[in-house]
Amino acid sequence: MTAALVKLSTIPQKFATIPRLSRRARAVVLTVHVAMSVGWLGLDAALVALEATGLSAANPAVPVGIATATAMIACWVLIPVVFFSLLSGLALALATPWGLLRYWWVLAKCGIAMVLSATGLLYLVPRLPEIFAGGGEPVEMQTLIARSVALMLLLAATGISVVKPWGKTPRGRQRPVKFFTVPRLSRRVRAVVLTVHVATSIGWLGLDGALVALEVTGMFTVNPAVPVGIATATAMIACWMLIPVVFFSLGSGLALALSTPSDLARYYWWVLARCGIAMALAAAGLLYLVPRLSEIFVGGGEPVEMQTLIARSVALMLLLAATGISVVKPWGGARWIPESLLHPVQQK
Known about the structure:
mainly alpha
């Protein structure tokens, strides 16, 4: 027995108590976590836009439709997204070298997520019977302020997860971990560009998911006032939020690709696939929106139609695929990339 205890005491303490995820399992969990976090931030931004639209609308039918839409999104879309985001984040923290208590940035991000989840549940749970009965969430200024604060905190959590500041906690310093970093741009500039790219890509996917939910709500509601409000809301979100988000996502992604030549060479196929999806969706979206801009500017809405719902659903699937591609980075490098770029010769 003593010999067994001595043998166990000699086992390295480098994450021996928690089994690591395999590379494939980690890629799956990380894809789920990124997609759910993307959805959380984008849905909250869409709810802020809906609240602002409802408060500033002159048509009394608009707040009615927006109240129903925000209640449905918060209850049926946001709660599952938040649940899977927290669950996948916990799995990554416990089963990877990052740990749950080893880095200050992990603690800060987990704290923000838990506080927002708790306050959201405290806000929604008393209203669930009314929502289940078909009622809506009242469009109020305090709700808009609360959602705006939540959006700022989610953006802060996004920046924290990208930059990873503050180093290790006292517990983390006891167990050193090697992790891979590749300096390209200066650290500060690359962190800023990468934060912008992640945040805007998150917003793109989340906003498209919110628009799909709005289209579904507008098509299957029995209240004739709801499609009117949803048509106005979807037009405002697409015109005033989605277009700038897509622009900054494409611009920051291009800046990252051009300023990291070895990454672009080594993982050229996944970069090409992701850029192709982004450019195709951006072009299709512009071709759809440009003929309708004059009607939107005078206060008109975007019609709630089945073909629009199908198109947005396809776009959502492609954006989820692009998220998975950016996380897993499959297919390797292109054959026509020079070997000197793939494996630079070190100078003696």
